[in-house]
Amino acid sequence: MPPATDAGAALVVLDLLGIFVFAISGALVAVRKHFDVFGVLVLAGTTGLGGGFLRDVLIDATPPAALADWRYLLVPIAAGLVTFAFHPTVGRLERVVNLSDAFGLSLFCVTGALKAVEYGLGPVPAALMGMVTGIGGGMVRDLLAGRPPEVFSGNLYATPALVGAGIAVGLDHLGMPFGVVAASGFGVCLALRLLAIALDLRAPKPRGPANV
Amino acid sequence: MPPATDAGAALVVLDLLGIFVFAISGALVAVRKHFDVFGVLVLAGTTGLGGGFLRDVLIDATPPAALADWRYLLVPIAAGLVTFAFHPTVGRLERVVNLSDAFGLSLFCVTGALKAVEYGLGPVPAALMGMVTGIGGGMVRDLLAGRPPEVFSGNLYATPALVGAGIAVGLDHLGMPFGVVAASGFGVCLALRLLAIALDLRAPKPRGPANV
Amino acid sequence: MPPATDAGAALVVLDLLGIFVFAISGALVAVRKHFDVFGVLVLAGTTGLGGGFLRDVLIDATPPAALADWRYLLVPIAAGLVTFAFHPTVGRLERVVNLSDAFGLSLFCVTGALKAVEYGLGPVPAALMGMVTGIGGGMVRDLLAGRPPEVFSGNLYATPALVGAGIAVGLDHLGMPFGVVAASGFGVCLALRLLAIALDLRAPKPRGPANV
């Protein structure tokens, strides 16, 4: 990962921004499920941090970064409280939330994949861990809210994350500088995800009736 | 954690008691869902031990204590079998179960938080881990039983655990002796939780209709 | 675990076969839930690998083997794609899938239990980890698919895994050679599970109406 320089500081700020937008999507789901304020905060926290927790537990980077740095806990709490108080406004901004979510996804798939590489995983599992970092928080959110994971419902969401993570891992493997690696993975994931939203691209579903 | 003295032995007994009452609440949910005897035992086990497992995985204290000491496995099995055999009686005692549950919650939030401190977490994440230890088992129970986590449904449950854990971490941080730390955190959590049950205190819910 | 010999190679092949049949059962559930191709792949992967992941996280054998060896990722992907493309045919073969599943269960309960022993767990928790390895993937599958865990629904499934794992751990504890240990645990679990399917053996359910 980057050294403790301007690039490093910028990455932390981006990371916190990504957590913030994910946390808002979790808090909105909790409001719609009529959970209490605590449920809103927990769904904000698990959506914002869950993907990173899953990754850190699997690659043995525990305790997860978010438990070692209080800023990572403050951000989802702030997102949860804002959504709790102003949910009609936040709900109307859902299109903005969706676009921000694409930003968070693109960021997390790259940082997650590179962290897995740093912890010694091979290219294929590292790319998979990048995808898990991007989509894991939303999956935990849907589990806790008692609804089927949205990521399986058709609109292309996991694929951009996997492609972005794969590109980052591949370029890193080729020895490219960090800036190129990160920008390429991030850019490709973001472009694919925005395209998927704009054109309503859908992953193929099984054809024909399921044999039950 | 305390040394292997009388205090240590007392803490183990309290811990096992806490696991027992949590396990009974899990087994009752399984009975009402018409799960088989195995489902009753698994829900007893995950409810009794799940919070501690979550904490231990997150703070890297694996394998969890419950896997290293067979007494920790025996207790939820006993609770599950008792509930399976005598569920009409146990079900009628639900008020007693609820009060015992408050005792387990108060105990686990304190022991969980202090264990996290011992493993090097800062005060804020340690208090959070205390809350997770207290409420995690019930959340896993509700996930496995396919119902929304009860902890989000309104009655004050997580807040007492977070406050109790925070008090324990804070006093420990100030260098207070273990007895004072533990008794204060435990007592405050228990008092808040019993008040919440007695007065039906409820966490605030989002106001106004959710914008879907 | 066995050395890198013919026995070791045979064990890897068996392990991959077990993952394959588990992954197919996960993919079939996803098809019936109308998940998209990505959901089919994720359910194939979590069903095939989830039990081992749970075990490895709990016994601190992270990163899980499946993340260190790309063959373990390829197998569930292949199973998922095959099921996605040919699900009417695969669905009709469900009886074959169920029998193969018994094979996977018998294999995983033994390898899981012996791995836990290798990582220092005592006999009782090691047998429990063997059972978790066998049934965990299916439980994660049912959670993600939003249905109650099938393993709680009555037909004897977890019990054969626990008995097989217990036998393997017990014989290993007595110093028996690996072949005897593995064959006995595997054989007993398989025989019990096949009997349970053939005779529709059911675990007891709570008697009388649940007191709600």
From TrEMBL, chains A, B, C:
Pfam families: Gly_transporter
Subcellular location per the Swiss-Prot or TrEMBL entry: Cell membrane
Membrane topology: Multi-pass membrane protein
Domain of life: Bacteria
UniProt entry tagged with the keyword Transmembrane helix: yes
Predominant location category: membrane
GO CC terms in record: plasma membrane
Domain Glycine transporter: 13-87, 99-172
Keywords: Cell membrane, Membrane, Transmembrane, Transmembrane helix
Sequence intervals crossing the membrane: 12-31, 38-58, 70-89, 96-114, 120-140, 152-171, 177-199
Entry-linked PANTHER family: INNER MEMBRANE PROTEIN (PTHR30506), UPF0126 INNER MEMBRANE PROTEIN YADS-RELATED (PTHR30506:SF3)
Record-stated family: Belongs to the UPF0126 family.
Protein name per the record: Trimeric intracellular cation channel family protein
